[in-house]
Amino acid sequence: MSNITIYHNPACGTSRNTLGLIRNSGQEPTIIEYLQTPPDRATLIRLITDCGLSVREVLRQKGTPYGELQLGDPKWSDEQLIDFMLLHPILINRPIVVTPLGTRLCRPSEQVLEILPQPQQGAFRKEDGQAVIDEKGQRIEPA
C-alpha cells in the first residue's frame, strides 16, 4: 500500500503532471478519482486544513458551476461552501496530494516536489514540453 495519495482528475493536465512527478520519484500512489469517489465531509475538511488553505482557496472556479451558483458572494459560510463541494465535487480544486511529509494543493504541479519522500529518479517534462527535472533528478528552476 502506498504512503502517497493523490486526489486526481485524469482530464486535468496539472493533475496528470503531478501524478507523473510522483511516479518519477519511484512511488506508485493511491489514486482517488475524486469526481467518481468524492471525499466525505470529514475528509474534505481535513484535506483543506492540512493544506493550510481556506475553504475559498480550494474552490475551483474554471469549468465549474462556481459562477452560476454565485459562490464568490461573501454571504456563503465555509460550511455552506463545503456543502457545495460535496454536492458538486468538480468545485474541489485539484490535485491534492497527501504524503508523510504533508498535504498540498499541487497547483502548479511542481508543488508536489516539496512533499515527496523520495527524490526524482530521472528527467521529467510536463505534457506541454516544459523541462522540470533534469537527467540527474534535479529540479530545473524556471528561467
The sequence of SSEs as H and E is EHEHHHEEEE
Uncertain segments are none
**Rg over CA atoms:** 16 Å
Structural class: alpha+beta
Query: Portion of residues in helices?
Result: 25-40%
Mean pLDDT, all residues: 96
**Shape, principal axes of CA atoms:** elongated
- Note the main sheet: 4 strands, mixed
How do the strands of the widest beta sheet line up side by side? 2-1-3-4
Count of distinct strands? 6
Ends distance: 38 Å
Count of runs of 4 or more consecutive helical residues: 4
Strand percentage: 5-15%
Tell me what you see in this structure:
By secondary structure, the chain is α+β, with helices and mostly antiparallel strands. 26% of the residues lie in helices and 15% in strands. It contains four helices and six strands, in the order E-H-E-H-H-H-E-E-E-E. It has helices spanning 13-24, 41-51, 55-58, 78-87, and strands spanning 5-8, 30-33, 96-99, 102-105, 124-125, 131-133. The strands form two sheets. Strands 2-1-3-4 form a four-stranded mixed β-sheet. A two-stranded antiparallel sheet has the order 5-6. Strand 1 (5-8), helix 1 (13-24) and strand 2 form a beta-alpha-beta unit. The longest helix is centred in the first third of the chain and has 12 residues, at 13-24. The termini are far apart. The model has no long low-confidence stretch (mean pLDDT 96).
